[in-house]
Amino acid sequence: MARDTVIGLVGKPSSGKSTTLNSLTDANAKVGAFPFTTIDPNKATGYLEIDCACARHKVSDLCKPNYGYCRQGKRGVPIMLLDVAGLVPNAHLGRGLGNKFLGDLTEADCLIHIVDVSGTTDAEGKATRGYDPLQDIEWLQDEIFRWILGNLMERWPSVVRRHRATKSTTLETLRQQLGGYSANKQLIAKALDLLPGLQPLQDWDDATIQKVVRSFMDVKFPTVLALNKMDHPDADKNVSKIILKYPKSKVVLTSSITEVLLRKLANQKFIKYDSGTEFIDTIDDLGPESGLKPLDDKLRNRIENIRDLVLYRFGSTGVVDLLKAAASLLDLVPVYPVRNIHNFSGGSGNNVFRDCVLIKRGTPVINVARKIMGDVTIAAIEGVGGQRVGEEDTVDVGKNDILSFKIVPGGGN
């Protein structure tokens, strides 16, 4: 069975990584059973918010997921987050927790780099003013590059000798060398496709090897830049500088500390807050019948400042958009396996769309079946309305994304 998608969170000390992680793994969102069978101390369950199929089919009142949550057609799908610790300069040389930091990275399919865009913390996370956060982005990319390149160059002469002796293809040789980074053959082939006209591997010079490593990094570690502390007065000029330097990067502006505070106030019944939006309501807006608690002047002023400086200006705290950006980079779409294709139930009871899995767009439905059910013999695959779906048909949003798999009796191994 395919492993779960893993999104790694990286960031220097005091960048807001822990606060962002807390906001992405909000304990109050954890409705339903726990989806992952094993979880390490540095892993957590995040929730990718999507438009649930229940809204499309007008059965939202019956939608009760086994994992995550669904609220009026907005579904939180569990996704594995990896808190990558030990982010310090010269990690590739083993400084700090460097070896563990880089080793943990191999498990990630995508990175969210939490950058302190206010410039109020230096490279070590100590308080300062006027620091250039561009350095943090360049530093992270350079650490990963030096780590992979160093590992490769250390054994390059023997790699070339073996390549010649075995008459291997470039793809096969690189698969052997880069497979340790949790990279399959398809991923390495994609990296090579980005470099047309490559010389035979035995003729590569240092510059060519470096180009190959850079291309591999682009495919293996696609990165969302989370520009945190966006509401700081110094943030604007740094945001502009970063977007100009990295025009092709996925960039999300965030204020994770604001998101955590708003969720806390909502849980304490001081406000009604729709996460991912600009909307906050208080007892002043909704009246005593809302059940909200009254505000003192200090809290009222704080909420007004949040409205003016964060929500009205930026549209939201940005945190909900981080996992959406990561899913977009990975081209993930939600797929709903159901027992009964006609009423979308799980086979017993009336609740619908009990399960949802994240699948790469364009995946054949037979591969979806294997990811969900393991090595079983499929007799038939049905889509909405009971229509037969071919094994090689592919999934997309609204296309073959609701599926029922019929298993041959005794067909499991």
UniProtKB/TrEMBL annotation:
Gene Ontology terms, MF aspect: ATP hydrolysis activity; GTP binding
GO cellular component terms, semicolon-separated: cytoplasm
UniProt cross-references to Pfam families, sorted A to Z: MMR_HSR1, YGR210-like_G4
UniProt entry tagged with the keyword Nucleotide-binding: yes
Boundaries of every OBG-type G domain copy: 5-274
Alphabetically ordered keywords of this record: GTP-binding, Nucleotide-binding
Classification via CDD domains: TGS_Obg (cd04938), Ygr210 (cd01899)
Keyword GTP-binding (UniProt): yes
InterPro entries: Beta-grasp_dom_sf, G_OBG, GTP-bd, P-loop_NTPase, YGR210-like_G4
Protein name: OBG-type G domain-containing protein
Organism encoding this protein: Scheffersomyces stipitis (strain ATCC 58785 / CBS 6054 / NBRC 10063 / NRRL Y-11545)
